Here is the input.
Amino acid sequence: MVVQFGWTFLGYGLIAVKGWSTVIFPAVIFAITLASLLYARAKAADGTLR
Here is the structure.
């Protein structure tokens, strides 16, 4: 997924064509992924997840 978004935004130049508003959706996906990862690591550290 990172490669796909990276190519779309950096390789193709979508930001130059469509503007910065196109970054919102991938940024939300990245934020949700990061929050989920941090939550899972915290739960694994306190023993809730094994």
